[in-house]
Structures are given as C-alpha cells and as structure tokens.
Amino acid sequence: MLNIALFGPPGAGKGTQSPMLVARYGLFCISTGDLLRTEMRNGTDLGLAAKDVIAKGGLVPDEIIVQILEKTISENPQANGFLFDGFPRTWVQAYILEGLLLKMHTSLMALISLEVPDRVCTERLLGRAVNSGRIDDKHEVIEVRLREYNEKTAPVLGFYAERGIHKAVDGLGTVDEIFDRVTNVIDLTLESVQMNVVLLGGPGSGRGTQAQRLAAKHNLTILSAGDLLQEEIRRGSPVGQQVFAQMEEGSLVPDEVVIRLVEERIKSNKGRNGFIFKGFPRTLVQAYILDGLLRKAGSQVNCVLDLRVPTIELVRRLSARGRHYDLATATIFQRLHAYEHYENALSSYYGNSGRLHVIDGVGSLDEVFLRMSKPIDEAFRLAR
Ligand code: AP5
Ligand code: MG
What we know:
Elements (H helix, E strand, L loop, with lengths): L3 E4 L6 H12 L2 E4 H10 L3 H12 L5 H13 L7 E4 L5 H13 L6 E6 L2 H15 L6 H15 L2 H8 L2 E5 L4 H17 L3 E7 L5 H12 L1 E5 H11 L2 H12 L5 H13 L6 E5 L5 H13 L6 E6 L2 H11 L7 H24 L3 E5 L4 H19 L1
Helix pairs in contact: 1-9, 2-3, 4-5, 6-7, 10-17, 11-12, 13-14, 15-16
Magnesium ion (MG) binds next to helix 1.
C-alpha cells in the first residue's frame, strides 16, 4: 500500500500537486483542510468548532482532526493507498497517523516536504485570494498560518527524519517541474520496497518447483535453507561436514548454523524485489528469528503460503523421487514427523498476524501455481 504524506508551509503547492499524484498512482487523497472546509459548508458541529480557528489562522484541535480522519479512512477500505495533504501537522498527529495506518497493517512510506520560502508562499496565497473564497486567504491570517507552520508543524519533520522517510523536494519552479521531482522520489521509494514470501509445506509438497516459477514471475530470490546447507556440503566446509551427519539422521540442523547462512544471503541480495523463503523458518524460534533478521534489514515477511498435501501423497512423491536421504522409509517418516511437529506452531504464528494463506497443493503444477500467485499479487498491492 503506497501511503505518502505531502508536507510544506501554506502556499507550498500541496493542493496543486495532490490531484496530479492521485491520478498517477491511483491514491485516495485526504486533505484535512478540504475535509474541514466541507464540514464548515455543511454546518456540522465539527465544522462550527473549526471555523473560528481557521479564520484566525491557527491549528484546529487534534481531537477534531482524528474524528474526520477516522471517518474518511473507514469509508474507503479498498483504497490502493492514501495521499495525506496537510496532515500530520503536529507531533501528536504524527503518532495518530502511525496508529491509523498500523490498524490497517500498513505504514507511511515517505513524507515529502515541498521547500518554499515564506515570502514566495505569501505571494502565492495572496494571488490565490483573488478567487479562492477562502476565509483564511488574507494577509494578516497568512502571517499567522506561516508562524503556526514554522513553530508547530515544521518540527514534525524530525519525527520522519528519524525514521529515514523524510524526503525534501525543492518547491520552486513550474508545477510540472515540481511534479517530476516528487514522482522521482516516489518511484525510487517504490523500487526500494522489499517483498518477502515464506513458503511452508511438508517435504515433497512441491515447494521447490513452485518457488522457482514464483521467483521468476515476481523477481524474487529463492532463499532455501536446504540449498544453502547442500552448498556447504558440496564445498566440504566444516559446517558442511557437521550438517551432513545430521541430515543423514534426518534431524534438524542447529539454529545457529542456519541463521548465519541465511543472514549472509539476505545481506547479499541485489536488484531483486525480495525473497521467497523455503525451508526456513522451520521452527517457531526460527519464525521469530526471521522477523528479527528482516526487521534489521528494513523489511518484513509480507505473505506466508502453506502448501497442504495429504501425508500419504507426500510419502508417495518422496519415494518416487529417490534422493539419497529419501531412500529409507524410516528417514522419510522422520522428516514428515519433524515437519508435522512444527507445522501447527508456524501456521498459528503467521495466522495470528493475518499473513497466512493455506493453499491446496493437490492438482496440476499450473493450478497450484495460480493458487499461490494470487496472494503474492495481493501482498504486492498492499506493500506498494
Ligand atoms: P489547508 O487547507 O491545508 O491550508 P494550508 O496549510 O494553509 O495550505 P494551503 O492549502 O493554503 O496551501 P497548499 O500547499 O495546498 O498550496 P496550493 O497548492 O493551494 O488548511 C487550512 C486550515 O485548516 C489551517 O490553517 C488549519 O486551521 C486547518 N487545518 C487543516 N489541516 C489541519 C490539521 N491537520 N491540523 C490542524 N488544523 C488543520 O497553492 C497555493 C497557491 O499557489 C495557488 O494559488 C496555486 O495555484 C499557486 N501555486 C502552486 N504551485 C505553484 C508553483 N509551482 N508556482 C507558482 N504558483 C504555484
Ligand atoms: Mg491545500
């Protein structure tokens, strides 16, 4: 979900740029100034309460702002993303925005501030006064609005600078020039958004085959703990030798070993949209660890697909494949047992956060692929 806030002093050009951005990115615009003016026109209690403050150029109380925002956001649950114009304007409103977006399992991607000196803002607003009909487009009120901005609103930039999502844009120039600068910032932000998918499913459920097709379609890197371990074994590294013995027994490799390999691989990802995790996490502890590793890298698990295939079918597929560690029936059962033991814990971990999609793994490769691809598309839509 692409959520952007457009920031800047009165007259910076927020209201001029916002309809253009809405058209380009299919966003839903929330301008608290426009919402307040609608309330005033309709003579509602909220409008009456705000009118005096606006006429004097002050800031409307946060309580009123929360009420109009909650109403607008809850009436538009299907929005692709929101463009906030003139909000947040105080430190308190910055926290309010965090809370509102968290409730929708999303967050603000960038706060773009249009940098325009007060003198130019005043000239522009006096120009607009000719036919805007706005009660606050008067010289003495503009002065108060600019003062309010500099004292109460400008400090909010610190909140977003700390989070690393404040982007300053030069607000001088033609409307089209500024639009180009703003869209450049948004496009770069979109490119940097990582998408991570976790594939769950028993050994033999078809994760490997599907992971390759999904990775190609969504430009993701497959991160398979099994492949990382096999790689170590092939290289004959000390880790590989230790791992080989454990795999022969059909038991799980210790967390420390897997984590180190996974972390190195996450760090080395370049030019891809994110990862498909396969065979990791395998335990509840590893699920927590993965969330921690991704958070450290500034991203998260967006979507979890649990590929379900009946046990009897898994046994049939594994025996038919005949890899060296699949040859003994006892080993197959050991692996299935280890998997089933952890599956419940993992699916409730991810189910609780609304990221889990249970996929029927029986059917042709294409059928299963389509079932898996759909929730990834949806997660992409939400993430971007
Ligand atoms: P609001 O409606 O948000 O007004 P504002 O902050 O004073 O900002 P403006 O809408 O005047 O400026 P803008 O940046 O949108 O510029 P615009 O594109 O129109 O808020 C009004 C009042 O409501 C506030 O004072 C407050 O009381 C209250 N309020 C609202 N939100 C609140 C909140 N969250 N918390 C508390 N109180 C709140 O451009 C201005 C002019 O410049 C136009 O004529 C335009 O054509 C021209 N222009 C634009 N770009 C250019 C350019 N590149 N070159 C030349 N001219 C340009
Ligand atoms: Mg405006």
